[in-house]
Design goal:
This protein has 291 residues and is of the alpha/beta class. The chain contains twelve helices and nine strands. InterPro entries: ATPase_BadF, ATPase_NBD, Euk-type_GlcNAc_Kinase.
């Protein structure tokens, strides 16, 4: 039996899986629940295992096919050393198993397996460089400590600014008034909301920030400019290692007009995503398997 390639993209929102033959012919695709191995390890592994089972069921392959499979999983939270050690206990039936972070597989996907760098700016943020032999990553330590240039950080700054304006510490604007109106102009309501807010919750105001910035709102523009400065700072070490960088994530397109022209000139469009990157790595590793 020829080798099969199995790619997993495990994120905080959902898990995606794709199974192909060694020529890249699609055999099955499957989707499952959240798979962040840092925040919910057991649930993440369960979601991944269910996706793998679904893939082989869809492809109508015999159980023996699993032993001929090269599996590459890109998992959110796999950059944490203690989680990496814990992942050693996850041994699905396969020919070989490789675990990366989701930003590393995204980097492989963005450059179709060739050397290059990627910076993901969405609800969170993280960067990685692939030199053809190993990955170097930065960021990705969560909203409380990291995630510079992300939607969650931008959203939190916007709400902080709205509260300052509400109390007359700084001038108000259309943006700050709109934010406070969402909380019935009540700092207490905002406080109650903040106790349970997730990074995704903080990031929901981001489209309003960009809209008001484009309309000339001074606070909106300043917030977006600060995010652009954060992203510029984060990608400098990546560009020092690779002159080919792809910007990915929900903020990648809207933030580009706010980035310095010399940075934009170095950006390349991503050729693929984290799932295609996992399969690309699986194919490369398969070629190195002993006969």
């Amino acid at each position: 039996m020829q080798s099969l390639m199995l790619g997993i993209d495990g994120g905080g929102t959902r898990c995606r899986g794709r199974l192909t033959d060694e020529r890249g012919q699609l055999l099955a695709e499957a989707y499952g629940g959240p798979a962040n191995v840092w925040s919910h390890f057991e649930a993440a592994i369960d979601a991944i295992d269910r996706v793998i089972d679904d893939l082989f069921t869809q492809a109508a392959l015999p159980p023996a096919a699993r032993a001929q499979t090269v599996l590459v999983a890109g998992l959110a939270g796999a950059n944490v050393a203690s989680v990496k050690a814990r992942l050693d206990s996850w041994q699905p039936v396969c020919q070989s198993r490789y675990v990366f972070t989701d930003v590393e597989t995204a980097c492989a996907g963005a450059h179709n397996g060739a050397p290059g760098a990627v910076f993901i700016t969405g609800t969170g943020s993280q960067g990685a460089v692939w030199d053809g032999a190993q990955f170097t990553s930065l960021g990705g330590w969560g909203f409380a400590l990291s995630d510079a240039g992300s939607g969650a950080v931008l959203g939190q700054r916007a709400l902080r600014l709205a509260l300052l304006a509400h109390e007359g510490i700084v001038p108000s604007s259309v943006l700050t008034q709109r934010i406070m109106a969402h909380y019935q102009d009540s700092p207490e309501q905002m406080l109650i909301w903040s106790r349970q807010a997730t990074p995704a919750d903080w990031g929901r105001i981001v489209p309003d920030v960009f809209a008001t910035a484009h309309a000339g709102d001074a606070h909106g523009a300043a917030l977006v400019q600060q995010t652009a400065a954060d992203i510029t700072q984060m990608i400098q070490p990546l560009l020092a290692r690779s002159q080919k960088l792809a910007l990915m994530g929900g903020l990648a397109a809207p933030i580009q007009p706010w980035l310095p022209a010399d940075i934009v000139a170095l950006l390349v469009p991503p050729q693929g995503d984290a799932l295609s990157g996992a399969l690309r790595l699986a194919s490369q590793f398969s070629m190195n398997q002993p006969a």
